Amino acid sequence: MTADATVPVIAATPAAETGSIYDIGYRKYEGPRLGRAHAIRSLFSHSLRSSFGIGRGGRAKIAPITLGVLVCIPALAIVAAQALIRQIPGGQGFEGQLPVRFDTYASTIGIFVVLFCAAQAPDLFGRDQRHSLLSLYFSRALRREDYVLARMAGFAVAIFILQMLPQVLLFVGQALLATDVLQGMIDNLHPMAAAIAQAALTAGLLGGLSMAVSAFTPRRAYAVAGIIALFIIPSIVAGIVVGLGSADVGRWLVLLSPTSVLDGTNAFLFDTPRIGQFQGYLDAVPDIAFLVTAAGGIAGSIAITIRRFKGLTA
Amino acid sequence: MTIFPEVARVTLRALVGRRRTVLMLLLAGVPILVGLLVRANSDGIAEVGPTLDGLVVRIILPLVALVFGTAALGSELEDGSAVHLLTKPISRTTIVLAKVAVAGTLTAALTVPSTIVTAILLAEPGADVVGITVSLGIGVFAGSYLYASIFAALSILTSRGLLLGLGYALIWEGLLAGLLPGTQVFSVREYVRGIVHLVSPSVIDSVVGNAAVPYAAIALVAALAIASYRLATYEVRGSD
Amino acid sequence: MTAPAGPPAAIVLERASRWYGNVVAVNDVSFSVGAGITSLLGPNGAGKTTILHMLAGLLRPSAGRVLLGGQPAWRNPAVYRFVGLVPEREAVYDFLTGREFVEMCAKLQRLPDPAAAAARAIATVDLEPAAGRAIGTYSKGMRQRVKIAGALVHDPTILLLDEPFNGMDPRQRLHMIELLRSMAAQGRAILFSSHILEEVERLAEQVLVINAGRLAAAGDYRQIRRLMTDRPHTFVVRSSDNRRLAAAFLAEPAVFGAELQDGRLNVRVAEFSGFTRIVARVARDAAVTLYEVAPTDDSLESVFAYLTSRR
Q1: Is C293 within 8 Å of A6 when comparing Cβ atoms?
Q2: C87 CB contacts (<8 Å, ≥6 apart)?
Q3: Is the Cβ pair C292, A6 closer than 8 Å?
Q4: Mutant choice from B48, B53, B67 vs A, greatest count of A C-beta within 10 A
Q5: What pLDDT, in 10s, does the model give residues B113-127?
Q6: Chain C residues with CB-CB distance to B91 below 8 A
Q7: How much of chain B is helix, strand and coil, in % rounded to 5?
């Protein structure tokens, strides 16, 4: 045992020896101490990495990898379809009618992004609470709001990356499909910029809301059910009520549905086509209301989460 | 035979906790809220069946069943407290049946009344209210036990039962049903629609039609059999 | 407590092995345990829980046989009529009170009077004052005792306990030791795992030493100890001046011999703990800095070194 080899603290003479205490632990740390900024950065990157299962066990990787593959399938399919259509004489005409495009890709993969939120957000806040790790975080240089912001930012960036993955595939595909690659890239620059902004907005709103829900429900099952309920049920309810037409109060229900708010904001800011199941209800309220709700949702979810963690006894 | 009610009683105690019950009550209350909103603005709608299919059968029912189905056994296996149940001289099939019975009954207790009340609120004057409520009630009742047994089986098969169940409900039954209509033959939602259609054909259309009952029965038996077998061979790994 | 009825109190492992994928957790272990108290002794990760879980029918042996009272444990819930398991994990049904939990165990055992049996078991573990409280509010020691009450409510002839003394204070330990002794005196077979030598010394008549998934020694604890101390041991030492250290060691009566090899010093000593006591002093007196002191092989010596070094 190497521990026994350390020099005794109490140097008793062998003859009088009745016992001795060996200094095998509790050694002082004399090195440099990294401060609050480093703690925030570490927590941010830990949140981002563990959202994709990096640094966690094999089981934790299954969900993010599956969803990562699923979001890319439509992009790959569409590039393949475009390439095939060009082989058909006169096939060019069909290209404009393909159902998956840059500007609508966000809603195409919406369900996967929602599932990603439901699968990964509860782990980031829930595990720290379930295993009573908060006291370990808060006894460091880290402040409570730092903890919340670093975790939420890490998760939002993870959602952003998830969405950009297929967009990049689509972008590269479009560029390579063009006879003049450079021109192809330039042509797609504008829609790509819009796609980036949309992804950032989605990341902020869905990430913020799902993290807020998980902050309040440490138990995984309820957090997952809560996130799904919050993201999916309001849009169905709004669809039914608005679908009836005359509902005056009912149409504002659209603003309760995060996915509809995103669709509305995107239509307002980036002029994306109003497609999808409940296209009608995007016209039900003034465009600016969507933008205000989106901004309010992001700010509100951050504020309420910080409040939650300030109140928790760690 | 005191085993079944005892396991069921303890499971019920475990499932009816404060926060969980409130959350599930809120979920089950959503359709009624929709019904009230619709009622406030009109005399009712013609499409009661499809509307409740889109709201209850598509999302509320699977979600409630998912929480109860996976919590009944899966969460207990995960945190290790199930060991006290597994080391008793009772057949594992009894455990599965009792757990599924409780999860299914709780799901039905929340979703069936919600469906019936909403259907009454939504029905326009002169509609066949009895036919609509009875058929939807029976469909959702059957769906409660079917979903609960499938999700309970998933929670024994894998520690990721909750996500897998969610993926099944949203991707398989939601997304793929539109893209690949063939998947509807293996969809609980379609079985529920089929049962509703069978009781009262005018309420809703069905792809599987009369075959819904045998399909649903096969799915139920298969889920219970798989769950029982998996629990009988369930291995508890220690910390070392 | 009445004398147990049922099949003979016998726990048998026949060349049992268990592996997880490529990792061998238990490697070809055979033993047979009868009435009395037996301890599974070994460091954390040695495979104690795996063995107990195989015995409790919660793990399928990858090879070999596991028998309780002559019956296979795996996929045979009937054995639980005469077997009780106290798992290491703390999770119990938090939403039940202690009494409700023990009564549930009694009912699931189909006992004729579950309430009376539960009251007896709760009294046995000295938990009456807290029996009406939800288990969620229990301390570690109370959880441990309520688990034990649930495991012995049906008077099992075989009792398996995984680290039963965890979380108990000294008084509770004493009480538990007395309880296990009285149960053993009634002819029950009690097998408990531990990595703390002190508990084993005080309680177990028989010891099974497990290390790295293998049965390293079995039998009477003092006998094993004596066999160990009679054998010479070898240590590998690395230091700032091996040559000078070798000379210093050879002056010690506890050291039989020392040889230099590849920059290391191999020291043969009479007794394990004797050497660990003198090594630091000798090095200091010789003004030599020690870098590493380790027993040469990873078998019984190191298990005991590990276990005894905590004292």
Answers
A1: no
A2: B80, B83, B84, B236, C147, C162
A3: no
A4: B67
A5: 999 999 999 998 888
A6: 77
A7: 80, 0, 20
CB atoms B84 and C56 under 8 Å? no
The CATH fold of domain C231-308:
Alpha-Beta Plaits (3.30.70)
Fill in the amino acid letter for B222.
A
Question: Which chain A residues touch C281 with a CB distance below 8 Å?
Answer: 8, 14
* DSSP type of residue B59: I
As a dihedral over the C-alpha atoms of residue A201, residue A206, residue A212, residue A218, rounded to 10 degrees, the angle is -150
Is B67 close to A249, i.e. CB distance below 8 A?
no
* Structural domain count, chain B: 1
Of A63, A229, A237, Cβ closest to residue B63? A229
What does the pLDDT average to over B65-69? 94
Domain layout of chain C by residue ranges = 11-226, 231-308
Two tokens, residue A203: 């990341």
Q: Report the alpha-carbon angle A179-A180-A186, nearest 5.
A: 125
DSSP at A178: S
Q: Which positions ≥6 away from B179 have C-beta within 8 Å? A: none
pLDDT per position as a tens digit, C249-308: 888 887 888 888 888 888 888 777 778 788 888 888 888 888 888 776 545 555 666 555
| Chain B residue at shortest CA distance from C148 | B84
CA C280 to chain A, closest CA, distance in angstroms equals: 6
Distances (CA, A) of A33 to A29, A141, C114: 9, 10, 60
> According to the model, what pLDDT value does residue A8 have?
44
In sequence order, the 6+-apart residues with CB closer than 8 A to the CB of A42 are none
Structural domain includes residue B159: yes
For C274, the token pair is: 């004797």
Q: Which residues contact C95 (CB under 8 A, 6 or more apart)?
A: B13, B14, B17, C134, C135, C136
Mean pLDDT of chain A: 82
Q: Is residue B53 assigned to a domain?
A: yes
Asked whether the CA dihedral B128, B130, B136, B139 is positive or negative, the reply is negative
Is C220 strand, coil or helix? Answer: strand
Question: Cα separation of C162 and C167, whole Å?
Answer: 12
CA distances from C113 to C22, C116, C182, C243, C247 (A): 48, 6, 23, 75, 74
**CB–CB contact A5 C281 (8 Å):** no
| Architecture of the structural domain at C11-226 | 3-Layer(aba) Sandwich (3.40)
Q: Is C266 helix (H, G, I), strand (E, B) or coil?
A: strand
Q: Measure Cα distances from B193 to A177, B204, B212, C223 in Å.
A: 45, 7, 8, 74
Query: Can you tell me the distance from the alpha carbon of A71 to that of B238, in angstroms, rounded to the nearest whole number?
Result: 37
- Residue A120 touches partner B, C-beta closer than 8 Å: no
Residue found under tokens 């889920």: B223
Query: pLDDT, tens digit, for every residue of B136-154?
Result: 999 999 999 999 999 999 9
The DSSP code for B174 is: I
Name the residue in chain A with its Cα closest to that of B62: A225
- Domain limits for position B173: 3-232
Q: What is the reported pLDDT for A7? A: 45
Q: Is residue B239 part of a domain?
A: no
Q: Which amino acid is at A9?
A: V
C307 at interface of A, judged by CB pairs closer than 8 A: no
The pLDDT of residue B104 is above 90:
yes
The SS3 assignment for C291 reads: strand
How many angstroms separate the CA atoms of B72 and B99, rounded?
A: 6
Residue B2 near chain C (CB below 8 Å): yes
Chains sharing 3 or more CB pairs under 8 A with chain B:
A, C
> What's the CA gap between B144 and A90, in Å, rounded?
52
